[in-house]
From TrEMBL:
GO terms for molecular function: beta-glucosidase activity. Belongs to the glycosyl hydrolase 3 family. Keywords: Carbohydrate metabolism, Glycosidase, Hydrolase, Signal. The keyword Zinc-finger does not apply. This is Beta-glucosidase. GO terms for biological process: carbohydrate metabolic process. Residues 1-20 form the signal peptide. Residues 709-778 form the Fibronectin type III-like domain. InterPro entries: Cellulose_deg_GH3, Fn3-like, GH, Glyco_hydro_3_AS, Glyco_hydro_3_C, Glyco_hydro_3_C_sf, Glyco_hydro_3_N, Glyco_hydro_3_N_sf. The lineage of its organism: Bacteria, Pseudomonadati, Bacteroidota, Saprospiria, Saprospirales.
Length: 795
């Protein structure tokens, strides 16, 4: 970036470039010694002036305290500036944010910790009151950025809630993904929100980890593509700020998804090559193609360096090599944990200095460590140029958003869930259901007695980071509604429990009495005897797979076995010799071998959103054919971890007496029809290392049902200077085909698909042969291949 000269009075102030803290071209700080006043004629208030000049003018007027305030957030301290009914109190606010504030966290909450939140109109009124205080009663009148969680829909009252990201990934549907996140953007923006802390683009390589549900799965390419669509849904296609758009936040950078022992925040034992090619790939891809405006650092360490103190990752790589120009925010309490948990800083001041030098711009969610930056700058321990760079990045978002011209939101425009949103979520839920097995029982006909059994059959199943969705349709409710309209009958029994009732937010998690569960099993068997078919909803829930944010709030497990007496329930129902359809819910893969063996059909569902019951009914009764594909492999047991498909050639030699392969592999998923794939065809079968070609495959619906199929492209570099995975996903396209219809799908092949980090850790395409494989899963038996030859320029 070219440094710009401020043009007010006699002071010279250069706004910092987005390079590392050690840049030789650090900006001058002479103007900071004497902050300007006279805000009535301030350039920063003049909308006709270039934003760079407005930022320079504003920074030139700010005290060190006001600059640092822009790097702070307020969350729990919101309650210190509220009345007894949680309304905003300007008098109390003067003690909390006397110099302004950068971010206000979760204004949609009333009390926090999963308690009931503000209605859309109440949230707008609350946000507007805060902005009015900041604009009218602080010296420079700088508005705040309001941020909310939006993992799978805005986490607020009466908002729309779809399935967890792992389920969104299971749709393999780019356009659907973008429409989902655009829904959240519209609702968030209408309530005065400017930033959402989503999407998560961690790569989930250990299913014991409780945050698998928050990710798009195990594959870097699929994660990058789905994450990009989420960002475009939030932010739009360009730099122009349109109504209904919010700034996205990629998280968590990086290595978070394969922690030691599957324990959240544990060290990630990764080489630089694996870190960059797998875990950083989605971040790089979205920075290059999505203009994302925020990135959140991760809690974990890599090679002894916590991400919140990783200058190489956040400055050299992210900003230097990739050219990222946005803001880097801390994960909640991540800065103070440099001292309190990682022990790489002796106190909070040292933690703050190390974090901001390493590239952290904003401390979330509360002002714990960064307030010490005032003293660090005043003492000369922290170069004020580093502070200016961070402040400039935050102010740029506020100017780009137009907050200085219009900091307020129209309360009459606050949005809640609509019937159109229901339709979209219902579609997403049906496309996320992955059919793993079908012995001909599906789709179901009418005039049946259906026994709906299981701990997840009549339970709200949201997963983590959920606010208060407008409604939720359980499996039982959805099947009952369909049955009432089609002459069938539904009977119900709980059968067993995963845990006693509880909350994702709260503790403790209470195990179930085995004696009580066995009584429930006996009742379920009695009820199921009258049925023609059993729909059994089992798996996990939001208490058994969740973010472990403290030793008193855990969510990781060393086992993938289904909790409690669920396998006893499966065994008891199987003895009835009534066809059984298994539905597996929860946030991560489980060992479902017993269910798969004893059921006529099995679906992996993860979480499907507020329309769960309707989505399930649509699929089971054939209103819609299943089209979901696994975004993460399902291992046979915890002892089979890691089970990801894109392993190195030496990684799966085998186990004594055990199959080494996943029970169900990445990309797998059946339909109610069949599809035939032609041999793939290359546009050119020989290209130079800097050349391009295409690969085309014909896919035909050979059955009698219209359905969607996901055409998948995998590539293997046959011989290379460093080892390469046995297969890597490099393209996919979801298509809908009528019975007998054929479609030709073409994928581009070039540097992006063929390159990798060579022995010098530089992206390159090496001469040699590449196997290009097309089909409908990552299994070799589901793929057909063709060989591409790449030659050096010299030949």
């Amino acid at each position: 970036m070219v440094f710009r000269l401020a043009f007010l009075l006699t002071a010279l102030l250069f706004v910092g470039c987005d390079r590392s803290a050690d840049s030789d071209s650090a900006p001058s700080t002479a103007a900071a010694d004497k902050p300007r006043s006279n805000t009535e004629t301030a350039i920063y208030k003049d909308v006709s002036q270039p934003i760079d000049d407005r930022i320079a003018d504003l920074i030139g007027r700010m005290t060190t305290e006001e600059k640092v305030a822009q790097l702070l957030s307020v969350w729990s301290d919101k309650h210190r500036m509220e009345t007894d009914d949680y309304s905003f109190d300007p008098e109390k606010a003067r003690a909390v944010m006397p110099h302004g504030i950068g971010h206000v966290a979760r204004p949609g909450e009333a009390r926090g910790n999963g308690e009931p939140g503000r209605t859309p109109a109440q949230q707008v009124a609350y946000a507007n009151a805060i902005q009015r205080f900041l604009v009218e009663e602080t010296r420079l009148g700088i508005p705040a950025l309001m941020h909310e969680e939006s993992l799978h829909g805005l986490a607020a009252k009466d908002a729309t809630s779809w399935g967890q990201p792992i389920s969104v990934a299971a749709t393999w549907n780019r356009s659907l993904t973008r429409r989902l996140y655009a829904t959240a953007a519209r609702q968030a923006a209408s309530r005065g929100t400017h930033v959402v802390l989503s999407p998560v683009v961690d790569i989930a390589r250990d299913p014991r980890w409780g945050r698998v549900e928050e990710t798009f799965g195990e594959d870097p390419y699929l994660t990058a593509e789905m994450g990009l669509q989420a960002v475009l849904g939030f932010q739009g296609d360009n730099d122009k700020w349109d109504p209904g758009e919010v700034y996205a936040t990629l998280k968590h950078m990086a290595g978070h998804g394969e922690p030691e022992g599957g324990n959240n925040i544990a060290p990630a034992h990764l080489s630089e090559r694996t870190l960059r090619e797998v875990f950083l790939y989605p971040f790089r891809h979205i920075v290059l193609y999505g203009n994302v405006r925020n990135i959140m650092a991760s809690y974990n360490e890599v090679d002894g360096v916590p991400s919140h103190a990783n200058n190489w990752m956040l400055n050299d790589l992210l900003r230097g090599q990739w050219g990222y120009r946005g803001v880097v925010v801390s994960d909640y309490y991540g800065v103070e944990e440099l001292s309190t948990r990682h022990a790489v800083a002796p106190d909070l001041e040292a933690a703050a200095i190390r974090a901001i030098r390493s590239g952290i711009d904003v401390e979330l969610p509360d002002a714990k460590a960064f307030p010490y930056l005032v003293a660090a700058v005043n003492s000369g321990e922290l170069d004020e140029a580093i502070l200016h760079r961070a402040v400039e990045r935050v102010l740029r978002q506020k100017f780009d958003r137009g907050l200085f011209e219009n900091p307020y939101t129209d309360p009459n425009g606050a949005l809640a869930n609509t019937s159109a949103d229901d339709t979209l979520v219902r579609q997403a839920g049906s496309e996320a259901m992955i059919l793993l097995k079908n012995e001909g029982i599906l789709p179901l006909g009418d005039d049946l007695t259906i026994a709906v059994i299981g701990p997840n059959a009549d339970r709200e199943l949201h997963g983590g980071y959920t606010g208060e969705p407008h409604h939720f349709v359980t499996v039982r409710q959805g099947l009952e509604a369909y049955a009432a309209a089609h002459g069938s009958t539904v009977v119900y029994a709980e059968g067993t429990r995963v845990t006693e009732p509880g909350s994702w937010y709260k503790d403790p998690v209470v195990a179930v009495s085995v004696a009580d569960d066995r009584a429930r099993i006996e009742q379920a068997v009695r009820i199921a005897r009258q049925a023609d078919v059993i729909v059994l909803a089992v798996g996990g829930n939001e208490l058994t797979s969740r973010e472990a944010w403290a030793e008193s709030h855990l969510g990781d497990r060393p086992s993938l076995e289904m909790l409690g007496t669920q396998n006893e329930l499966i065994d008891a129902l199987a003895e009835l010799d009534i066809p059984m359809i298994g539905l597996v819910f929860g946030g991560r893969p489980l060992n479902i071998s017993n269910l798969a063996e004893k059921s006529a059909a099995v679906f992996q569902c993860f979480y499907l959103g507020q329309e769960t019951g309707h989505s399930v009914a649509d699929i089971l009764h054939g209103v819609v054919a299943p089209s979901g594909k696994l975004p993460i492999s399902i291992p046979r047991s915890a002892g089979h971890v890691p089970a990801y498909y894109n392993h190195k050639p030496t990684a799966r030699r085998g186990y004594l007496f055990e199959d080494v392969n996943a029970l169900y592999p990445f990309g797998y998923g059946l339909s109610y029809t069949t599809f035939a794939f032609s041999e793939p065809r290359l546009g050119d079968d020989l290209i130079p290392v800097d050349g391009n070609t295409t690969v085309t495959v014909d896919v035909t619906n050979t059955g009698r049902v219209a359905a969607k199929e996901v055409v998948q492209l995998y590539i293997r570099d046959d011989f290379s200077t460093v080892t390469r995975p046995v297969r890597e996903l490099k393209g996919f396209q979801k298509v809908r085909l009528l019975p007998g219809e054929t479609r030709s799908i073409t994928f581009e092949i070039g540097f992006e698909q063929l390159s990798f980090l060579n022995a010098d850790l530089e992206y390159a395409v090496e001469p040699g042969t590449f196997k290009l494989m097309t089909g409908n899963s990552s299994r070799l038996q589901d793929l057909k291949s063709v060989t591409l030859t790449v030659v050096s320029q010299a030949r």
